[in-house]
Amino acid sequence: MNIVALASRNVLRNARRSALTVVALVVGTLAILVFGGYVNDNVQGLQTITVRQHGHLQLVRKDYLDFGRGDVGRFSIRDYETLLATLRSDPVLAPMLAVATPVLNVEGTAGNFSAGASSSFSGKGVIPSEYLSLLAWDGFGVRIPPGRSALKAELPDGGIIGFRMAQLLALCGPLGLKDCKTLPPRRVASAQEESLPEDIAALGLAEQPTAPEGDAKAPATIELLAASPGGLPNVVRMSVLQAERQVIRDIDAIYVAMPLSLAQRLVFGPDEHAVSAIVIQLKRTDLMEAARARVSELVKGSGDLEVLTFFQVSPVYEQIVASYTSVFTFIAVLMGFIALFSIANAINMAVGERIGEIGTLRSLGFQRGTIRGIFVLEGALLGLFGTLIGAGVSILVQVGLHAGRFTWTPPGRSSPIPLRVDVLGNPTLILATVVGLSLVACLSALWPANRAARMEVTEALRHA
Amino acid sequence: MEQPPPSSTGVAARLQQVTKQYQLGKTTVHALRGIDLTIAIGSYTVICGPSGSGKSTALQLLGCLDMPTSGTLEIAGQDVIALSDAARTTFRAQHLGFVFQNFNLLPVLTALENVEYPLQLTVRDPAERRERARAMLTAVGLGDLLHRRPAELSGGQRQRVAVARAMVKRPRLVLADEPTANLDRRTGAELIALMRAMQREHQTTFILSSHDPQMIEDADERILIEDGRVVESTRRQAPLAPAQGVS
Questions:
Q1: Cβ of B107 under 8 Å from any chain A Cβ?
Q2: Is the pTM of the predicted complex or chain greater than 0.90?
Q3: Fewer C-beta neighbours within 10 Å, C or N terminus of chain A?
Q4: All structural domains of chain A with their residue ranges
C-alpha cells in the first residue's frame, strides 16, 4: 500500500462526486481537442489551398506587393527563364522543390460584347502543365481533391474563367453551364451597344488569329482588356475553355486563368516576355525557411528581387489562423478554469470530510508534505482520468464525424466542405491537453491540500 | 501534589511544571496548571479524572501531538519541545503508538493495510512490513479478518486493529485516549485485557486516559487529574505477573 494506491481508493470512495468531476474534465478535454482538431484540419486545408494558389514562396521585384499591380512593367521580371534554371538546378534547393513556375498577374476588363456584358477581372497567366502540378499539392495529406485546370499548352488562346464571371458575361448558354443564372436582357438595346466597339475590336483583332469561318462549334470567346506598361490599352481575345467554380465566391466573379503567353501578349504585346513572379512550391511547408534563405542567396546578384512567403502574399491566411487561434485559446482557457474549479471543489470537499483522517495520519507520523501529497495526487488522478477519457472520446468524435461524412459551407466559400476534426493528426495537442489539464488539476488541488497539511493535529483529531 | 519518584526501570515520560492554555474567543482556558508527572518505562498508567479535567490534554502532550504553554516535556529521554514540527512528527512515527476513542482507522484500507500502512515510515522492506502487520493482527485475534475493511468489523474488532496498529511499530510508548468509551462493557473488558496482555508481553509503556473503573483498577499507576492539576498519584506495590497469552 503506497500513497498512490491510498489516493486512488480515496478517489473511488465518493464515486458520484469523483464521476461528476471527471465528467467536467472529460467535457473540457473534449472541447479543447475537438475544437483544436477542427482548427488543425481547417488550417491545414486552408494552407493547402493557399499553397496551391500561391506556392510557398514567390520571387518578385522588391515592393511588388505594394505597387506591382499598378505598374506591371516596372515590377516584372524579364530574365525569369535564367532565374528558373538557376533555382531548378541548385543542388541545395532542387530536392526541396515541388514546382517552380513563372506567373504573370494581370487585371483589367473582360467583355462579352456580343451580349453587351463586361466585368472587371483579375487573372493570371501560367504554364498549364506546371499550374496543374501546383494545384495538386497535398503536403499534409488532407486529401482535398486536386484543383482542376482545363488550360492546355496546345491551346495558347484558351483560358478559364470563374463560374460567376461566366454568369456576369452571359456565358451560361454558350458554355452549357447548369444552375447558372442568365443575364436578363437589357430594356434598351441598340445595334451600337450590342456590338464590340470598333476601336476595341481593332485592338483585339490586330493580335488575334482569326477563327476559321463556318465553324459552327466555335468556342465562346471574350475580350480581355488591360493596360500595357506604357499605359495604353491592350486587348486579346480569349477562348473560354471552361468556367470553373472557385472556392471563394468573390474570386469566382473575377477569376481568369490563361496561358502565360496569352497573358504576356495582353500586358506587354507580342515582343516582350516578362512575369510578375516565380512561384516556388515546396514538398513540405517546414522546408520554407531553409528554401527562402537559399533562394535569397541564389538571387542576391540578380537585382532588387525579394522572396515572399505565402503569408505575405496572402495575408488573409494569417488573419484566419490568428482568428482560429484566439477562439481556440479562449476555449482552452475557459476549459482550464472549469477544470480548476471542479477539482478544487472536489478536493476541498474531500478535505472537509476527512479532517479526522488527516489528524490520524499526522498522529501516526506522516509529515505535512505527505498529507499535501495525498490530496494533490487525488486531484492529479481525477485530472488524469478525466483528460484520458476525454481524449478517447475526442478520437471517437473524429471517427464518427468522418464516418458520417458531414459537410458545411464556411463563410465566404461557394461550396460545402467536409466537416472534419483532426485529433489524431496532432498528438502534440493531445499530450499538451492531457498534461496541461492534469497540471491544472494538481494546481487546483494544491490550495485545499495545503489547507489539509496546515491543520494542527489536535484540532484535526477532534473531527474524527 | 508531588509525584512519586520514578521506578527503577527508568523514565518513559517526564512533565515538569507543564501548563497549557487555550484561547477560546476572548477567554483563556487553563487546561493544565503546572503539572509534574513521571511515567516509568514499562508501566501501565491510567490518567483519570472528570470530563474537562485536562487528562486528554495531558495525553496529547505526552503523545507530542501538542506542545505545552510552559514547562518541560521529556519523552523517551528526548526533550520534545526543542524539536521542530517535522522532527516531532518523525519522533511520533518512530517511538509512539496511539489508540483513539473512535478507533480512527482509515476506511478505505483493510485491517491488514491499516496496520501495515504506518510501518512504511519506519520499515523499508515491504515484505517485512506485511509480515509484521499480519503477525500483529493475528496476535490481537484478527488473523482471519485481515482483509476486512473497518466498515465490515465490529467496534471491538476495529479497536483491536487500532491496538495492532499502535503496537506493530514496537513503540516506546502507547497512548490510548479513552479506548473503551465507544465499546460495550464486555467488549471493553476484552480490550482492556488485550492491551494489558500486549503491554506485558512487549514490555511497552502504556498511558491511558479513562473513566473505566476496571481499567483504573488494573493499572500499575493511577494519576487523578482535576481542574488541570494532578491531585493524586497511586502506584501499585507489586507488579503483576507477565501474561501467558493474549485473548
A1: yes
A2: no
A3: C
A4: 3-46+319-461, 63-303
